Amino acid sequence: MKRAHIVGVALQLYYSKIPQIPVESKLDFCEFCKVWSSGESCENGDVKRRINLPWELLQPVLRILGHCLMGHKKDEKLYESAIGAIGCLYGRALHDLNTKAMLATGSLLQLVKLASESDDVDYTDITESNTITL
């Protein structure tokens, strides 16, 4: 877990500079997340191991992917790549029965779904009405 903590700190530093990081680096990061969540790494052609998804790593990864989704300057390729990476991480969380990861990745996917369904709705707008809806 010490390694996971160290890498998590490095990812936090990456996230702290995310507005200045070029889009190509963010695309590479999304591709890395897809490979990481696939859960298999081959060595010598016959050994397959599952790479752990500790929370210390997953939390900053999801922050970075969230920025790629909801960033102010939307790049369509980056947006689609981030959705794919989050979908892969969600599938891995379901496979591992990792409840924290399922909740976090599922929430990001729900945000994407809500954003795509209603681009023109302003949820901060308060409407005046005499009816109560539940």
TrEMBL record:
The keyword RNA-binding does not apply. The keyword Phosphoprotein does not apply. It is found in: Cell membrane; Cytoplasm, Cytosol. It comes from the Eukaryota. One of its GO terms (biological process) is protein localization to plasma membrane. Keywords: Cell membrane, Cytoplasm, Membrane. One of its GO terms (cellular component) is cytosol. Belongs to the Hyccin family. PANTHER family: HYCCIN, HYCCIN RELATED. This is Uncharacterized protein. It comes from Anisodus acutangulus.
